[in-house]
Structure formats: structure tokens, C-alpha cells
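Bumping with the actual sequence this time:
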Amino acid sequence: MRRNWTREELILAFNLYCKIPFGKYNQRTEEVIHLASLINRTPSAVAFKLVNFASLDPYHQKRGVSGMRNAGNLDKEIYAEFSNNWDDLIYESESLLNEREGNQSFQQKIIQEIDLSKEGKDVTRVVKTRVNQSFFRTVVLNIYSQKCAVSNIDLPELLIASHIVPWSANEKERLNPSNGICLSPLYDKLFDKGLMTVSNNFEINFSSKLARISDKSTYENFIKRYEGKSINTPEKFYPKEDFLDFHRKNIYIE
């Protein structure tokens, strides 16, 4: 008799949906097999569930990904829950995952690593923030194939999950993967300081202030060569137009 999926299982499946590329949504993928073992499901059942989630993604809907065509109401509810409350659902999913894996409390690990005298006394909030930031970085780097969206630099140590709308400007959306772009440090700094932006067509624009760089070879090689070109777009969680509009209108310096 087929067993219905529980809310907890679906939260764990969505956690994996966020973290791995669309091309890995199959029963042979190591991460799929691992999750299947944790929740006592078959790898094929987990893979089908990931495709069902993809069928709810607006980007994949445009591509014609239909999933199993019978994504359940609970599937839709979990997708909507994450979309409307990334902060709480990320933390809940990571907590559930660690419990299933039987790891030492990841909360305790983080507490051991931080200086609470500097971080403040709200330990729970500090831990949650660290966990959620780690998730956000993992997802953003993976959906951009571990490459800078501008320069194609592909060393993880040199990659940053940059926020389109700054962390402090929109609490509700700050952990939404659609509010992230994978950038190497130079372009992260340019984007953060408003010296670079991205159009709704994903074209790169640089501030005219950068033309004042005295070393013209630096300007030509690192700035001008990318002007008007498109960023490498992710395979899901595309940058939202509203977020890009905010950056151009409130941060970018023409």
C-alpha cells in the first residue's frame, strides 16, 4: 500500500530540491539515494517528488516541465511555505536533516565557534542566522554551477552569494535564492557599491565612474569587456525583476 508523504518528508525533499541541479533529479544521484535512505523512501520516489517541485517553479513551468502532473496539495503548500517564509523554513529543514542524520547538534557546533560577547546574547537568533546564511550560499553557488555569473571564475573559495536587495533592506526576501547572484569578490564589491547592476534582461551595466580607473588595461580587461553582456543565468530561482529593479533604482550609480 502506498504511503502518503508527510509534511516533514516534503520539507526535507524541498531542501534537497533547492540544493542540487535539475539534471540530478534522478534515482541514481548520490544525494537522492541518501535522502531516500533517511526517510525510508525509494530513490525513484524522491526523484519524482523533486520533479514535482520543479513543475511548480515558474521558470520550469515556462520550460514546459510538467512533473508528474499530479503534484499534491501538500506539495504545493510546502512550495508556497518556503516561498513566503524562507527564514523559518530553511532553518526547520536544516534542523530536520541533521536530526535524521544523527549528527551532533549543529546548533551546539555553531555556538562553540562564535564569540557571543561580540555577537550579542540572542544565541538562538545567531545560530539561526548562521545556518540560514550557509544554506543560502550553498543554494546560490550551486544554481550558478559554482561559477561567477560575470567572469566564470570557478573556485568556491573565491565565490560569494551576493544579495541583489541588501540583507538589511528586506527581511522577508533576504534568504530567497532569487535574491542571490554568485559573484567573485571584485564583482561582488562593484555590485554592492552600486558600480555595477543587472538589467531585467540580465545584461551587465557598469557605472560611468569606473571609466576613471587610471590603469586602462585593468579597465578594459575587468570592466569594459563585460559591459552589455549577459550574466550566466541560474538553472532555477532566476533573479526576480522586482529585486533587480530595486538595485538599479536604489543602489546603482550611473
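The C-alpha cells above came from a reply further down the thread. The chain has a mean pLDDT of 88.
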